[in-house]
Design goal:
Rossmann fold; 11-stranded mixed sheet; carbohydrate metabolism; secreted
Length: 302
């Protein structure tokens, strides 16, 4: 397929605080350039919406712009086909149309590296629900382009082929998610691993110590949720697998916009800011070249 590159409002592309719409062939995405833009290379975060969502809607749900302005991060919010991603499960319109979303994200990274001051060793992907499952797939199939992933309200399809290259990963899920069962099992279009099985899968891939460091956070927001964080570490490489459990949390983005009533999606926890938790994880890692293509640890923050 021939991709032509056309950007709207090109004269704004490198001005701080600009949000631009980009057409990549037949696909679209939003780009946000932070206010604190410098002449150096900047981290890139791609944020994938859930089923029936859009890139612009994901900006409202998971608004990384304050972090982008503070830390000098460039953001991309892509649109899926028919408001869906081909994450490998058979239920999405994107799957049924044979959409190659792995290729789309790969080309999006190429475009960003060619047109914006992106640090190609610090490309990160996060997403929720269908976008979270797509993020998991990218972690398995696009490992050489990505420094770390963070998945919210999703896990891994049990038939997904595991990555062959270690990658830092974070999985965040509520125990009372009504759409993506915390304990795994059959859902629309496939059968998924539980939250813990997903962590165990990546612990094996990344060669981490199977005994995690566990930290809990009480219900200081008085919303009925508590937070448990498990951190598994490879003592040689520094790569981490992090699991964040929102006890009694729903199919939501903690600290974000409750996009549907609580009766439908469950509790949106205010005991955790998912945006901050994800960025604090991402900033630890950059992708480095090695004979095996492994991801290395960034010794210090940006």
């Amino acid at each position: 397929m021939r991709f032509c590159y056309t950007i709207l409002a090109l004269f704004l592309a490198l001005q701080g605080g600009a949000q631009n719409a980009v057409h990549l062939g037949t696909r679209d995405f939003l780009v946000y350039v932070p206010k604190r833009i410098t002449s150096g290379a900047h981290p890139l975060i791609l944020v994938l919406h859930g089923r029936l969502g859009t890139g612009s809607g994901m900006v409202r749900l998971a608004d990384f712009r304050p972090i982008a302005d503070r830390e000098g991060v460039i953001l991309v919010y892509p649109d899926g086909i028919d408001r869906s991603w081909n994450d490998g499960r058979t239920s999405s319109p994107a799957y049924k149309k044979g959409v190659d979303d792995v290729d789309f994200i790969n080309r999006t990274i190429d475009y960003m590296a060619a047109h914006y001051p992106v640090d190609s060793t610090r490309v990160y992907v996060t997403g929720m629900s269908n976008g979270g499952f797509m993020t998991s797939r990218l972690g398995d199939e696009l490992t050489k382009r990505i420094a770390a992933i963070a998945v919210v309200a999703a896990s891994v399809d049990k038939d997904e082929k595991p990555a062959t290259i270690p990658l830092p990963v974070l999985y965040l899920q509520g125990t009372k998610d009504p759409l993506v069962p915390f304990k795994g099992g059959a859902i629309r279009g496939g059968t998924i691993l539980s939250h813990q099985e997903t962590l165990d899968r990546w612990v094996a891939i990344d060669g981490c110590d199977p005994a995690p460091v566990v930290v809990t956070r009480p219900d200081s927001a008085h919303d009925g949720t508590t937070i448990t964080k498990q951190t598994y570490t490879n003592r040689q490489t520094g790569i981490q697998v992090v699991g964040i459990t929102v006890e009694d949390g729903g199919h939501t983005w903690p600290g974000g916009w409750p996009y549907l009533p609580k009766a439908i999606i469950g509790i949106t926890s205010r005991n955790l800011d998912a945006n901050e938790a994800i960025w604090e994880f991402f900033r630890l890692f950059r992708r480095v070249s090695s004979p095996k293509g492994a991801t290395g640890v960034l010794p210090e923050g940006p």
